[in-house]
Structure to design on (974 residues):
């Protein structure tokens, strides 16, 4: 049963993050996703202090707020302060992360969050924290939370698909036909923050980035249609979490870490396969001439 | 009571000295990382070091840095090459390539680390020092290593200073004059990996990017010279290292690395906001000053026009309402401007209601009115723009025209005789 | 020489723009009639693209206004189509030529509404008009520069607008494509549509355009092509006559002065 919950958690994290990841990859903003995933730490710690429990609504709101603040600060330093963009990203997220670690150390007695968990989560323990209503268990809390986030993502992406893809491909044109580029930018970033926070507990700060980027990039190599790219990236994500689980089970290592490794292996196979295919293709094309 | 003698305890000295040397290395190399806009690649390298360390440990079964560092160096360098390979051989852009390499290498590192921890191998505890840094537990051996690395880096930067400078500014030109740019890039990235490998032992993988970039990004605001920039970056990171190391001794539960980063970030953010010339506040103040200058010059100009319409210039005293009739200004603004002009000696207050221009004020007012007319003439006579469209433009330009530009305009327009515009 | 027209299709009044602090448009003021192809020309950095963007509300306007069909852009957006510079987008985006042309229909679709079959028909038809129907399912990065430009024009046609604003549609395009596009534009104007084109090449301008707008940070001339294509006006646009203007622009920029007081 544990295996089922763990894989389901992995799949839920992957489903939300790879959909969003497709847009991040196409907008060349994956590093902002990376920054958000690190920067939500202080928000999580503070919300945890106030509410005294994990996976609370307060935690989600607090951390998602910090995620948006990160996006805003990166742009603010870049545009108003003349700081080049890569440095602006690097300084913003390290500051927030450092603040988070300091807060954890300072409130060590009150906060049941350790640094390991921050970096790679505790997906193996999701089933230990069930949702209790009355005396009845309704499955792990994390599952409920992640399902909620996944539905949120779908509820925004499906109706907003055209606007999001158009503001991604050609922002000038989108604005010219009356679609707000800024609005969709912040909608996307809010969803990324939300997904990051909800996944933080189970897979940690850095592995969220793996799920945001790697499946989407793998799919990007293989398809020339945005819809297929999104579907493929979910497929690669799911594949990576299943493979990762068994890799971890076999080797007795971190499940989240193994899932990221598996997604990297899939990427490597597709990348090399694509190159070989292209080379073969070119050779046959030449010989036919 | 805090016992200050603790700062002279040898263990404390190791920590302070170690952090100091490590910061110096990182900020020196980081200056070039920053200038080449590769800050985030630095971040990827820091993360990619973890699996190298784990692999080296698995292969050798020892925590001896002489084995671990080559492993770290290898995967760190590999990450740079992979980012390049992915961007060159596919349509994936640099940001995604960095994210992929960073997260997959780090995930693999975490996986290997946990495998090692669960395997019950002897002597494995302490490997996670690379994850979070172990600044508070630096030993004399570490300090020696850091010192040698710092010396090596500074010597290399000093030796190849002009090559690295040109490489960072204009790689194509460097190649055109016969520099072996590929070799130089390899060398520079090697130095960067070296600085990162030593640095993460103190602050850990996640925060390493800050040590690399924050000092350089801050220093950039204080100077326009590369060598001064490196010097300032070293200074800032040294101060941060000392403060960070001290905090964790004054409050022992506090982690050293994050505090160094917090101090660095504080320096950076304060600089972005308050730096001379480029800071946000300075820019804002400049805009305010411009507004004030415009206000004052506009008042002087209006006074001047009024003076010209009065037949008897001895009686050129005006009420504030006269000004407002000519020019719609908010009362608070007008009062502010008048007060400033009185204190600057351009306007004198005659009695409760009446004001007059001083000789200098008259001169200033005349100058602004002259520039206004000159610009209008330039637009209508020279660029043949319709006369009813030039006034708004001249209202702005009159405040920025320098004496040199005035002279050029007068020459172009053939020293026109300019009569004050009377409305 | 600035010729104003009665009942203009486009009216630009004292338009001033600061864009990323530079380049800058100052006091642009002209009108264009209906049913013409108008060229906007000037040297590099003259603010031609900025002018088009300002007309489409893509850059904040410092002062002045733009009226299209006698109204604000908001009211008439459905009647206006914009073709951005080809370089402004990433052609590796996962989309086919047909997908891109379909984007031209997005403005007419409501939330949740998917492109209908009729929209696809329109998109195919527009691809046909630019001679690209054979490439409908081709991934856009595999198209040549000229073909990409044609796809952009097809997308704009799919909007079925009355006014077309095109930012350098001939940049990086082979001569055959250029001629084909011009033919298409002429056909459109004969149906009463109006086309405004940012253009570079002085040689071809006379054959392509009915109306010419010359500018260099400021408006130099606007009028029927025969009257505007004079040596004197071209000299004024492209010659060094505007040096002081550039110096003053730099000065405003450096000192953080606003370009208008209010």
């Amino acid at each position: 049963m544990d295996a089922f919950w763990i894989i389901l958690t992995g799949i839920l994290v992957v489903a939300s993050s790879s959909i969003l990841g497709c847009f991040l990859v196409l907008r060349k903003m994956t590093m902002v996703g990376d920054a958000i995933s690190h920067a939500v730490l202080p928000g999580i710690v503070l919300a945890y202090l106030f509410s005294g429990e994990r996976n609370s609504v307060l935690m989600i709101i607090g951390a998602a707020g910090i995620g948006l603040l990160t996006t805003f600060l990166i742009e603010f330093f870049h545009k108003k302060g003349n700081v080049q963009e890569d440095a602006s990203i690097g300084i913003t997220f390290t500051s927030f992360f450092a603040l988070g670690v300091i807060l954890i150390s300072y409130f060590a007695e009150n906060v049941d969050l350790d640094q390991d968990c921050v970096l790679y989560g505790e997906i193996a323990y999701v089933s230990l924290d069930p949702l209790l209503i009355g005396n009845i268990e309704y499955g792990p809390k994390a599952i409920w939370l992640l399902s909620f986030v996944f539905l949120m993502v779908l509820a925004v992406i499906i109706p907003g698909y055209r606007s999001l893809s158009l503001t991604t491909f050609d922002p000038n044109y989108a604005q010219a036909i009356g679609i707000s580029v800024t609005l969709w930018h912040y909608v996307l970033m809010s969803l990324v923050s939300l997904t990051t926070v909800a996944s933080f507990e189970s897979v940690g700060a850095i592995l969220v980035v793996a799920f945001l980027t790697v499946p989407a990039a793998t799919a990007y190599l293989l398809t020339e249609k945005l819809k297929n790219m999104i579907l493929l990236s979910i497929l690669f994500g799911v594949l990576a979490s299943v493979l990762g689980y068994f890799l971890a089970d076999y080797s007795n290592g971190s499940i989240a870490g193994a899932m990221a490794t598996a997604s990297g292996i899939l990427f490597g196979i597709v990348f090399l396969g694509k190159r070989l295919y292209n080379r073969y293709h070119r050779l046959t094309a030449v010989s036919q001439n | 009571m805090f016992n200050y003698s603790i700062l002279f305890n040898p263990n404390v000295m190791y920590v302070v000295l170690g952090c100091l040397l490590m910061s110096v290395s990182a900020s020196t190399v980081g200056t070039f990382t920053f200038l080449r806009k590769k800050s985030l690649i630095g971040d990827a390298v820091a993360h990619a070091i973890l699996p190298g360390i784990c692999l080296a440990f698995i292969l050798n079964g020892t925590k001896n840095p002489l084995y671990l560092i080559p492993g770290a160096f290898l995967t760190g360098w590999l990450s740079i090459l992979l980012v390049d390979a992915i961007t060159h051989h596919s349509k994936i852009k640099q940001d995604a390539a960095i994210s992929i390499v960073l997260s997959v290498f780090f995930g693999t590192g975490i996986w290997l680390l946990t495998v090692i921890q669960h395997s019950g191998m002897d002597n494995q505890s302490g490997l996670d020092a690379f994850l979070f840094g172990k600044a508070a537990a630096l030993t004399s051996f570490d300090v020696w290593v850091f010192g040698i690395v710092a010396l090596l880096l500074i010597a290399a930067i000093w030796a190849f200073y002009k090559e690295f400078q040109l490489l960072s500014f204009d790689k194509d030109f460097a190649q055109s004059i016969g520099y072996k740019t590929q070799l130089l890039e390899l060398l520079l990235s090697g130095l960067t990996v070296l600085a990162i490998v030593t640095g993460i032992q103190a602050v850990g993988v996640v925060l390493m990017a800050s040590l690399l970039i924050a000092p350089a990004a801050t220093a950039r605001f204080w100077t326009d010279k590369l060598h001064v920039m490196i010097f300032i970056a070293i200074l800032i990171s040294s101060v941060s290292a000392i403060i960070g190391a001290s905090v964790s001794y004054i409050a022992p539960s506090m982690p050293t690395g994050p505090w160094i980063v917090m101090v660095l970030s504080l320096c950076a953010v304060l600089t972005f906001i308050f730096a001379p010339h480029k800071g946000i506040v300075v820019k804002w103040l400049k805009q305010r000053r411009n507004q004030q200058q415009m206000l004052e010059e506009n008042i002087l100009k209006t006074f001047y026009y009024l003076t010209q319409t009065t037949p008897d210039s001895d009686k050129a005293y005006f009420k504030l309402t006269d000004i407002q009739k000519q020019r719609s200004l908010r009362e608070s603004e007008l009062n502010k401007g008048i007060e400033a002009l009185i204190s600057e000696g351009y306007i004198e207050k005659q009695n409760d209601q009446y004001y007059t221009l001083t000789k200098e004020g008259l001169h200033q007012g005349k100058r602004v009115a002259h520039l206004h007319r000159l610009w209008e003439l330039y637009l209508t006579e020279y660029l043949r723009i319709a006369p009813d469209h030039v006034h708004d433009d001249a209202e702005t330009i009159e405040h920025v025209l320098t004496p040199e530009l005035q002279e050029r305009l007068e020459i172009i327009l053939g020293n026109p005789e300019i009569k004050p515009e009377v409305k | 020489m600035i010729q104003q027209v009665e009942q203009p299709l486009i009216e630009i009044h004292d338009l001033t723009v600061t864009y990323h602090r530079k380049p800058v448009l100052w006091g642009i003021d002209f009108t264009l009639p209906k049913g013409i192809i108008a060229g906007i020309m000037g040297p590099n950095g003259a603010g031609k693209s900025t002018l088009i963007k300002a007309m489409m509300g893509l850059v904040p306007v410092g002062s002045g206004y733009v009226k299209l069909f006698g109204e604000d852009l908001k009211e008439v957006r459905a009647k206006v189509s914009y073709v951005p510079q080809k370089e402004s987008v990433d052609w590796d985006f996962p989309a086919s030529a047909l997908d891109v042309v379909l984007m031209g229909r997005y403005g007419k679709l409501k939330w949740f509404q998917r492109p209908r079959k009729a929209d696809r028909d329109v998109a195919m038809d527009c691809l046909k008009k630019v001679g690209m129907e054979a490439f409908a399912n081709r991934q856009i990065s595999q198209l040549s520069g000229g073909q990409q430009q044609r796809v952009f024009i097809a997308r704009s046609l799919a909007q079925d607008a009355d006014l077309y604003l095109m930012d350098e549609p001939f940049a990086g395009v082979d001569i055959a494509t250029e001629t084909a596009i011009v033919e298409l534009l002429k056909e459109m104007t004969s149906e009463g549509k109006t086309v405004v084109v940012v253009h570079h090449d002085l040689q071809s301008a006379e054959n392509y355009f009915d109306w010419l707008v010359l500018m260099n940070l400021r408006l130099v001339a606007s009028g029927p092509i025969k009257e505007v294509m004079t040596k004197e006006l071209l000299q004024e646009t492209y010659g060094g006559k505007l040096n002081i203007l550039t110096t003053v622009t730099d000065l405003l920029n450096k000192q953080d002065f606003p370009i208008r007081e209010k």
Remarks:
- Chain B has a mean pLDDT of 85.
- The domain at 10-275 of chain B is CATH 1.10.3470.10 (ABC transporter involved in vitamin B12 uptake, BtuC).
- The radius of gyration of chain B is 32 Å.
- The beta strands of chain B are 347-349, 355-357.
